[in-house]
Amino acid sequence: MNKKTLLPLSCLIAALTFTACSDDDDNGFTDLGSKVEIPSGERVYVLNQGTWGMNNTSLTLFSPSTDATIENLFKTQNGVMLGDNAQDMIASDGNIYIAVNGSNYITRLNAAGVEQARMSFASTPDLQGGVRYIAADGGYIYATFYGGYIARLDAKTLEIDRTLHTSAGNLEGLIVKDGKIYAANSWATVTDPVTQQTSYQYYTNLVVVDVKTFTEEKKGVTVAPNPNLIAEADGKVFVISWGNYADRGNEFQTVNLADGTSTTITEAKDMAVGNGKVYLLKTQTDWATMTTQNEWLSYDIASGRLSTESFLKDAPDELASEIIYMMDVDPTNGDIYIGVTYYASGNGDIYRFDRNGRFISTFDAGGQNPLKAVFLK
To answer: How far is CA 42 from CA 109, 207, 358, in A?
Structure first.
């Protein structure tokens, strides 16, 4: 693993004196309150989920122009750990928003990782299932929760504006599009009233909520069992379902919102959108032998064509058999970031490719289980 930590002397002094190394940028975001010097140019933020119960969620900042990293950025800037098991991260209006599932809160950070606002759901009875995914739209942050709830928060203060108990079991990924929220209704546990045996039920729909009235619409969108990931690009919507772990596996689907239907294109467990494509990961792990085989597919959004030729042209050999935990695309230059996990045995690694799939570099994720990357420039 390649570790490069950027902590210049000037910023060590700044950290001791609690002064900022930089103030406002001219890029629409601010570094006000930073205790470390932030590299100039574009920034990539990597959210490491950590290991359940270990309170080791972390945030790493990577500078593409210098190949330098600042590990554990949140603790450095705020003096505390992020918490237990992060689930999602987005960038919006120059801010970073992180949803931490185990600790059950959402935080808003400025571009230097300094916390600006936080909303804990620990004392909110309806939201005890835990926050899952988040999306930003129209000055609000929308969040899904286990237990079938969707919450709307003020994007600046993170105060709860509305909550809605939908007909869903446990909600996962969501998007906000054309005045509606589309959220993946994934699964729930059900207990047989006679035998008292508990089993899993896997749902096959996206819940649809009208943003203006904040009410659930009767007609949802039908998808493959256990939908988890949802994305939008170029006016089109895509879903990945994780199946029922029996006769249905992972499925990548295109969604027709007009008639509430979906079409399965291929098997895939993860996706990332960029460069006019949906990049797909098809993976199979034999947990008995702990061996993994990965395939890299791509779906051209404009033509609707699937390519089984790998979009990675000169990937390091190990990527064919590592456990992939993250795929994200830099919207400014099309670079592709792929995160590898070693679970609790050590920090993950991030592999960086250009928009044509050419390998650029590898860097240490700075924490366990790299989950998500977002970008500011």
So the answer is: 17, 36, 20
φ, ψ (nearest 5 deg) of residue 77: -80, -30
Please list, in sequence order, all residues whose beta carbon lies within 8 angstroms of the beta carbon of residue 196, skipping any fewer than 6 positions away. none
Residue 135's DSSP bridge partners are 142
* Cβ-based neighbour number of residue 372 at 10 Å: 22
Backbone angles phi and psi of 331, in degrees to 5: -70, -15
CB 341 within 8 Å of CB 325: yes
As a whole number of angstroms, the distance between CA 341 and CA 357 comes to 21
Give the bridge partners for 46, in sequence order: 60, 373
150, 171 contact by CB (below 8 A): yes
CA R_g for the chain: 20
Token duo for residue 148: 């079938």
Cα dist. 306→114, 155, 335 in Å? 42, 37, 20
Could you give the strand order of the β-sheet that contains 95-100, starting from the edge strand earlier in sequence? 86-92, 95-100, 105-109, 115-120
| DSSP classification of residue 249 | -
Condensed to tens digits (0 to 9), the pLDDT of residues 156-212 reads 999 999 999 999 999 999 999 999 999 999 999 999 999 999 999 999 999 999 999
**39: three-class secondary structure by DSSP:** coil
Burial degree of 348 (CB within 10 A; 0-12, 13-18, 19+)? buried
State if pTM tops 0.90: yes
Surface-to-core class of residue 240, CB atoms within 10 Å of its CB (0-12 exposed, 13-18 middle, 19+ buried): buried
**Three-class DSSP category at 9:** helix
Q: Which of 235, 238, 234 is nearest to 221 (CA)?
A: 238
pLDDT digits (tens, 9 = 90+) for 86-143: 999 999 999 999 999 999 999 999 999 999 999 999 999 999 999 999 999 999 999 9
Strand partners, 138: none
